[in-house]
Request: fold
Amino acid sequence: MSNLSTSTAEVEIVFCTACNWLLRSSWMAQEILSTFSSEIEKLSLVPSKDAGQFEIRVNGQIIWERKKDEGFPTVKELKQRVRDQINPDMDLGHVDGKK
Reply:
């Protein structure tokens, strides 16, 4: 049984190659895919020559920008922001904590 019909989101992680953020980016990609495997159609790691660039985009919309958001997201922030874009009603269990 396939969930491909529900897969609609495209996620891009844009990272500075000079800063050596490939490992961080691939770890975040793994976290996203492990949580949202049936909601994501495509996840891309996009190397950037722009110094210090680190952005996460969902369907073309920036949901995290390192310079604006002052650093990198925690796993909790990452999953919540992705969820808010692709499936706002999804319960993330312990990641959401008590409401």
User: Anything to note?
Assistant: The chain has one domain: 7-93. The helical segments are 22-36, 75-86.
